Amino acid sequence: MSGRPDTRGDGTRCVHAGSAVAGPDVPLAPQPVLAAPFHLGGEDFYGRASNPTWRALESAIGWLDGGECVVYSSGMAAVSALLRTVLGAGDVVVLPSDGYYLARSYVRDHMAAHGLEVREVPTAARWTGETVRGARLVLLETPSNPGLDVCDITAVADLAHAAGALVAVDNTTATPIGQRPLELGADLTVASDTKALSGHSDVVLGHVSARDPELLARLRAERTASGAVPGPFETWLAHRGLGTLDLRLARQAENAAALYQALRDHPRVTGLRWPGAAADPAHPVARQQMRRFGGVVTFVLESTEAVEEFLARTTLVASATSFGGLHSTADRRARWGDAVPDGLVRFSCGCEDPRDLVADVLAALR
Ligand SMILES: *Cc1c(COP(=O)(O)O)cnc(C)c1O
């Protein structure tokens, strides 16, 4: 896809990203190649090192991210590969204190032998030179998960680069068409494509994108050596899902806006957050750096029991973790150990009709 002008719209880009050059007998849509060994002499020789199905998805996501993409077997495989590749013994790493919990626990429990100095910083902190001083890597997550706070990627990247650090952004919640961290000054963007990018709740996958060829070569070599490789079938499923990302995000954001409106003055709801709402504290920065908003909304009910009762009474909202899929889901985050109120619900708007979804949620809260 390189060489194509980037002026095309998100729908066009999602549909055509990573498609093969047209020709007789070429399948219209990319197809999975499941091979382990290949006949030698060409680009591919063994499925842990390279595969045409990976290349198709990497070319698609890389085009959308504005860099080159390396796909992994899960979001955590991508996050951990990035950490292992970039960090050396005794380095200082800045992590979001309110971001995805496994990134912190991976560093704490599985990289302890590196003797890293870990600095946990809230996404909505006032970032200064002091926050990033001496760091080798600053990992941001914006919007953060599940609190939906945001930080100014360009401003933090300027501070971090002045301190000699690399900047990576976990872009899972935004997706490559919702926010382009590489264009905003980050060195790396990492995501769980299990969520909105694949979008159909049937595949676990992740990726890292970057622009620096040396960094990309190290990531690819680390992937081949560690074996954190995605299966071609999952890779193909993700590519298939990506084609409708623009449509799905548009409906999810429409649902989020309708739900926000319906819950804003609801007597049982507090702490309502959606960065797309003009009244949300994250909105001014989000509007500046995000290209569009997604369907994840957070709010707080009175207690654990209140959330359980709500989930039992809805008919359209599944009690499930994960987010960004076709189906609306809701997750009480304290059950996973997030440092949030017991009654905090991360609500992922699916692609149902706004009228039906809002009616179902309001009935379940009655
Ligand atoms: C889900 C998630 C991950 C982990 O991705 P998996 O595909 O589940 O391994 C990382 N970061 C964020 C923000 C996530 O939501």
TrEMBL record:
Gene3D superfamilies the record matches: Aspartate Aminotransferase, domain 1 (3.90.1150.10), Type I PLP-dependent aspartate aminotransferase-like (Major domain) (3.40.640.10)
N6-(pyridoxal phosphate)lysine: residues bearing it: K195
Domain of life of the native organism: Bacteria
Gene Ontology biological process terms, A to Z: cysteine biosynthetic process via cystathionine; transsulfuration
SUPFAM superfamilies (alphabetical): PLP-dependent transferases (SSF53383)
Cofactors demanded by this protein: pyridoxal 5'-phosphate
GO MF term list: cystathionine gamma-lyase activity; pyridoxal phosphate binding
Record's keyword terms, sorted: Lyase, Pyridoxal phosphate
Keyword Cell membrane included in the entry's annotation: no
Pfam families: Cys_Met_Meta_PP
GO cellular component, one term: cytoplasm
Keyword set includes Phosphoprotein: no
EC number of this enzyme: 4.4.1.1
Recorded family membership: Belongs to the trans-sulfuration enzymes family.
Protein name: Cystathionine gamma-lyase
Organismal lineage: Bacteria, Bacillati, Actinomycetota, Actinomycetes, Pseudonocardiales
